[in-house]
Amino acid sequence: MFPKLKFTEAQIRDYYARVTPDMVRASLSAEHGSFFDLLNLVSPEAARPEYRAPLREASMRARRRYYGKTVSIFAPLYISNTCVNSCRYCDFNIHHHAERKILTPEEIDLECAAIRKNGIDSLLIVAGEDPKHMTVDYLCEIGRRLKDRFSCLSLEVAPQDEDAYRKLFDAGFESLICFQETYEKGLYQYLHPAGPKSVYEYRLWTQLRAGKAGFRTLGVAFLLGLAPWRIEAASLAAHAFYLMKECWQSRIQFAFPRITPVSGGFTPEHPVDENDLELMMLAFRIVFPECGMTVSTREDPAFRDAIVQTAADNMSAGSRVTPGGYAVLADRDVAQFTLNDSREPAEIYQAIRRNHQEVVLKNWDNRI
Ligand code: SF4
């Protein structure tokens, strides 16, 4: 469990079992959602079919209040797939014999040009954990190189200390994503047997360090499929409430990545189906209306097109999860996970507009 949460897993399970129809209805119309409203709205009681329409309506109202009809678009750019960690569920882990590649600055330029052709102005830099090559200085160099080409630069790389985050922020990065994978400490240690990522606490407080260093957006998530999702959802909500208090100047952003097949053959013990995924996203939108929410490219087009109308406010388009996948090595895929939405950006924009929503490629101009 998230360590600041004062309840045990058994108490959370017991609470879920006692949620009544009245509690679900009260949480659906709560003015300021609490931790217990979140539990009520993801409970087995709330999963009953008769609540789905009111949940969608309440979530859509919350989404409209803060995000109108806009859908923000970003692209991930994998700059490296070298990694010293041993995560059992990932094809980039050190024991997997995947082809490895680190993009050169010139290759990064080629990839960025291919991404910019689709009008995308928000870039997420992704790299495996590789302290020898992906140093803070190198990442800062990339930030400085790209900050005039993209209005928003985000990072999904190895956790850093607070000083490093200050340097990265000064270099142009303003947003950070770090999946905790699982909040269950024992399971975390089993899944991450070696490498720097094996230290649960260091990863857990990543967003706190980045928030204190000035990062404007702090992304939180667990990997759906590793542990029972309702228990993880309780921890995720507690983590988000904690960060909102400690880093009140930053915006929290949720993601709900489900494990998709990898060539290493990892099978999730607690798979999450689409129905439960939707329930969780609707509940988090209702309780955390102002927070960002991303829908993953791991989901299929129909689900993505529907959930950006009711809950999520941003999505990637035309994603490649291979270093060089946009331009340099477009024909050779060494992906971290399987993508289920392979549409080109133009098709995604069309689908958004067909649903009477507005595609947002740029949120602001950086004048500093
Ligand atoms: S999940 Fe991340 S840290 Fe773990 S092996 Fe894959 S790339 Fe490395």
Could you name the key traits of this structure?
368 residues; alpha/beta; TIM Barrel; 8-stranded parallel beta barrel; 14 helices; 39% helix; binds iron/sulfur cluster
Strand content: 5-15%
The CATH topology label is TIM Barrel
Shape-level CATH architecture = Alpha-Beta Barrel
Residue share in helices?
25-40%
Shape: globular
* Number of structural domains: 1
CATH superfamily heading: Aldolase class I
Over all CA atoms, what is the radius of gyration? 20 Å
Structural class: alpha/beta
Explained architecture:
With about 375 residues, the protein is an alpha/beta fold. The chain has one domain (about 55-360): TIM Barrel (Alpha-Beta Barrel). Helices cover about 40% and strands about 15% of the residues. The protein has helices at about 10-20, 20-30, 35-40, 50-65, 105-115, 135-145, 160-170, 185-190, 200-205, 205-210, 230-245, 275-285, 300-310, 345-355, and strands at about 70-80, 120-125, 150-155, 175-180, 215-220, 250-255, 290-295, 315, 360. Strands 1-2-3-4-5-6-7-8 form an 8-stranded parallel beta barrel, surrounded by 5 helices. Helix 6 links the parallel strand 2 and strand 3. The mean pLDDT is about 95.
